[in-house]
User: Fold this.
Amino acid sequence: MAKLSGLGGRLYSGETSFNIVERRKRWYSISALFILASIAALAIQGLHLGIEFKGGASYTVTQPTATVEQARGAVEGIGIPGEIIVQKIGTTKVRVQTGAVTPDQSKAIESALTSTSGVTTESIDTQLVGPSWGKEITRKALYGLFAFLLAVMLFLAMAFEPKMALAAIVAVVHDVLITVGIYALVGFDVTPATVIGFLTILGYSLYDTVVVFDKVRENTKSVAANSKMTYSQ
Assistant:
């Protein structure tokens, strides 16, 4: 730890440096491999969307006496088509998620859970989400994201240079695409909380890029006056 601290101090003071720009092809190659792997994961496996985006039903049972396996067996016995996801939430709740169901099927699921879990219907929080609502939310989220990225590009182009604005967007796409690729590869559910996580990564990526650009501009004021110097020097 002391060695790392000393290295950080030397890097900050300029006593030690890494010629990152000169080895940029190596970093480009590593990033390209991650991006290709992410694209392949998205193309082959795709994202596992939660019911908030694809539509479906969610039943959260409070203080159930049944186990996750018993709750799953009770719902599967009804013959609901599609995948059934049963999760334990903390120590007092069990959540059951299914695809789109009819009102009669929803009542049958509630009845099965009450009898299996030993609870009343008041202890079951039922949420039904239509597929059209999920598509509308997704469409609005994408429109908002594109508008935000466009505003960021315009701001960076005015504050720094047009090339820097393009580089910032490339950095954001790079970071978010790799994260989304990991989600596709592992098979995690994409929920509103996941989207918030993606937006957090987007925000940190932009913040980091702007800080770096500002520091580069500060440290390279003399580059324009000396045509023999390059940014890597």
In short: Residues 92 and 99 are 24 Å apart (CA to CA). The beta strands are 48-49, 56-62, 85-89, 93-98, 124-129, 189-190. The chain has a mean pLDDT of 82. The chain has two domains: 24-47+134-219, 56-129.
